[in-house]
Amino acid sequence: MAGTGDGPMTRILVYAEPLPIRNRFDEFADAALLLGRALASPPAGRDLQLRVFGNDAVIDRITREDPRLATACLRPTRDERKAIGEQFDHWGPKSIAAWSDLVAGRGPLTDFYEAVLERLYRQHPFDVILLWGENGAVRRFVDRRGLLAVHAELGPTRSPFQPTLYFDPEGVNGNASLLRVPAEAMRVTDFDIDGWLAVPPKPGEVSPHDARVLLDPALAEHLPEGPFVLAPLQLADDLNLLVHSEFESPEDFLRQLAPVVLEAGYDIVVKPHPGAVHRPYNLVREDRALAFARRLGSRVKVLPRDLPATANAHLISHSSAVCAVNSSVVFEAAAMGKPAFSLGRAAFDIQGAFKADAAQLGGHLRSLSPPPRQREAVAFGLSRYFLARELITSDGALPAIIDFMFETRDRDRSAPAYWAEWGDRLARLGASQRGPDAEIFIGGQALRRPIQVKIGGRTVQMSGPGPEGRKITMTRTSGRFAGNVDECSVTADRLRIIGWSAAKDGDLPPAAVVVVAGGQVLAVGCAAEARPDVAAVLQQPMTQLYGYHFETDWTQEAGCPLQLLLVGDRGAVEVVDLAASL
Fold it and tell me: Cβ(252)–Cβ(212) under 8 Å?
């Protein structure tokens, strides 16, 4: 990475999956917001260049919910937008197969998105692609270009357990580098699992530690009197099921699991997935699995769908064991000291501590003893790999994590030395790494308030606070944007500006709209409001956002210039004089 200032310049592209999946265009918007926000406040003295790419629906969500990220966002070209729109399909076997091919790096979608990445790289070079989950086009592109991909995913712990995330340069789920940890590196003596379980719960919740000796009365009527195995189901369209297991569906999983468990002398408690109701494809296939379970007789119980996720700790504590394809509940159960078995490939399955096929599972259940390495795997995972969500979202640790992965990108991740070095680096992330929040990204680089603006004939320069504040120069253009300032008024020292703007060479809105008064940034925003009238004239979808709206405190002074800056995604800027509008 090229270095500038006091630290290395990290050029990062957050790649929010643009393929419309699960009947939505914005399926990955929440993930993109999480990752973008985690990078928007780098430590002081730390240079970071951030870009975020996604389809229009994702970028619209980002700009509405966190306008400071607007100028870091990159949109598809007109032709790319048309192609992405045509890729929308009803969520079913055909579209799931197409998505699976993209994840695996096969088929025309992979070729298309690799070409999109090539275009982005030519226009905005980057060193690292940060993405949620996996994408075969990204993998092919970084391998060909010699770049780094960092994959992000939810960790195997959910409320009332401490929520976790993980980041991996090799992949997620069954492709995670954690699966290559050597046995001699697993010995962790400085982590207290019971202390981790005893984390104070949210109001009204019971900590996993206390759940071991309590029973939620609402659950009691649904549980058998004798020993039972808890079998949580996974979604039929989950890549953990489709790609990282040998099962074809939730029903297929139960058909193979049930005979082994019942023959070993245990009842079965089947837990439906709470998310199955949100997509018909999943709901229909889970209903088939539940119908099969009910036909097995009185020794198989099916839990209600509306149980809260926090019930998991109670269910685990009263079960004899937990068996799933590769659900996070398996890891949570092992953390609580229960025998837990994964019949598929899981990110947390260090040294095969959780993997069991049907033949092995019967023996484990009859002896009712967890494989010896499960507690070691839990301790290592929670102390060296699965990171507390707050470390990323509140403490600003993500830039340092990416730096380590970039520095060690050619290292052998199956070597004990790699994991020892990572453990040392991780130990230094305890204190907050978070710097002041960025107000705006120009050229992908963060500027913080107060921001001074110098408008020249050919350039516009923005600079952050202090004599050492970052200075960013943009090329001044004219005639690039069409648009209108519909209202510009001051009432009782309150400035109100309403208008719209769109680029003439692609009908895209500006990446950011900045209000400047007297050479200082007064407000930063973006085109985050619907303007159906504009969209209709431009022959664009009604969902495309072109409108901006500012209301901010400002005391008007005679002779004080008031200007609007329309910032493009490549750093060029157009200046609109507003003084005559007042």
Answer: no
